[in-house]
Amino acid sequence: MSARDESPVPPTRQDEVAAAASELIGGPLGKRALTGGSWWNPVRIVALVALGVFALGMVQKLPCYNEAWFFGQGAQYVHACYSDIPHLYVGRGFHEGAVPYRDSIADYSHGMKYLEYPVLTGLFMQVAAWLTPDSAVLMHEQQMYWLVNAGMLMACTALLVVCVARTHRRRPWDALLVALAPAFALTATINWDLLAVALTAAAMLMWSRSRPLAFGVLLGLATAAKLYPLLLLGPLLVLCWRAGRLREWGIALAGAAGSWALVNLPVMLYAWEGWTKFYTFSQERPVDFGSVWLIISQRTGSPLENANTYGTALMLLGCAAIATLALAAPRRPRFAQLAFLVVALFVLTNKVYSPQYVLWLIPLAALARPRWRDFLIWQSCEVVYYLGIWYYLAYTSGGENKQGLPPEVYQLTIAVHVLGTLYLCALVVRDALRPHLDRVRQDGSDDPSGGVLDGAPDRFSLAQPARRAAGQQPGTPSPPGPDRATADRASG
């Protein structure tokens, strides 16, 4: 890896959208500006911004907090402020002291029902229930339960943005993409996904510091809260294979397996049937909101009972394509790039896309492609979908008084979400195939979030024949990026 300036990269010097937006606070940072020695460092500023945006998201839920969660099913959709949290406080028996996984709850549409969340998320929900004060009015308890959860999710938000800000040592300001993401503010308190998102970000920070065991432990905990973090081990395996770092990957795998088992085994032994509910529910769940399968199902009138098979086949084909990209790209792709691609692939092929799933992708997108224009284009598509699903539910729950979006228009909002995600994926792939366009590498970096992969020479690569033809030996490191002026011209 070439020598380079280690000072933080001001986004206003690299990003035209950031530079234009900075006019609201006095314009871009000057060349002679002093940026060191102040308490207001980038990490603290980003964290405070994220907490402020999180609070604005709470304010957006105010119509529901006051009444829409409790009086009139359609109102929470019309105001686009729905949250699972107050409903599941009652629906999963927390208000009656039910213990997750041990106690089943009567559900009028499904008979007896166990909590359908992974163990660490169930613990998070239970701790919030313990902290919720009793009240003679159930509605007040539900409101307090949502507030307690919001406070705990706010702590997850702080952890998330601090980890993202510190993952790329020279690019802490990229975490502003997370802090200011519109879809982040709108979806942060719909469900408990931020717990897994924060733990995944902490894991990636540990990997960037060349600590594979800590990475594995945190990733295992994240997988105990939500299944998607497990996907990151796939692209990491291929990158470690290309770099000859399989030992570190094995350590990470062992740490992940150990921490996951430590959390899950007690519940598996104590309440097997309740523990399996999450996995059986995920397998048996029919085609649902937000997926391309729903568009096909509604258009054809078929329930698509084989959607699991179709989705799995597409996921495997996509993973094979990502592995080929990792091995055949002229320069080894960055870990964050492949992590974003594999999670985006899972989102696009899954049979359900809940609006809060965008939280999985936001920090990965900020690390994979920190460019404001493209990030905001994608976020605009996600906001369109966010509004689309609630207005569609308002339409379907309105009875004779129809208000909201009919199925045909809702299908368009799904298509907008899918196209927006594919757009960002295409740009990440382009950056991997044409590394001189990758903004993160324009200072000569290799993979700042890659830990032991950063600057490591290739040991195996499908691109080696081309490199031999160019006169390079197979064991040499990936070629450094172009100088700053050349890269700036190439990126437009």
Write the SSE topology:
Layout: H1 16-21, H2 42-60, H3 62-68, H4 75-78, H5 84-91, E1 105-107, E2 111-113, H6 119-131, H7 138-167, H8 176-179, H9 182-187, H10 193-208, H11 212-223, H12 233-243, H13 246-270, H14 272-284, H15 292-300, H16 307-328, H17 335-349, H18 358-368, H19 372-396, H20 407-433, H21 464-469, H22 484-490
Antiparallel strand pairs: 1-2
Membrane topology: Multi-pass membrane protein
Pfam family, one: GT87
Subcellular location: Cell membrane
Find the count of extended strands (DSSP E, 2+ residues): 2
Shape: globular
Summarize the amount of helix as a percent range: 55-70%
Summarize the helix and strand pattern as letters. Answer: HHHHHEEHHHHHHHHHHHHHHHHH
If strands are numbered along the chain, what order do they take across the biggest sheet?
Answer: 1-2
In round numbers, the mean pLDDT is 88
Number of structurally distinct domains: 1
Give a quick account of the main beta sheet: strands, pairing sense, barrel closure: 2 strands, antiparallel
β-strand amount: under 5%
Distance between the termini: 25 Å
Report the total helices.
22
What does the radius of gyration come to? 23 Å
Structural summary, described in words:
By secondary structure, this protein is mostly helical. The protein has one domain. 60% of the residues lie in helices and 1% in strands. The chain has 22 helices and 2 strands. The longest helix has 30 residues. The two termini are 25 Å apart. 48% of the residues are buried.
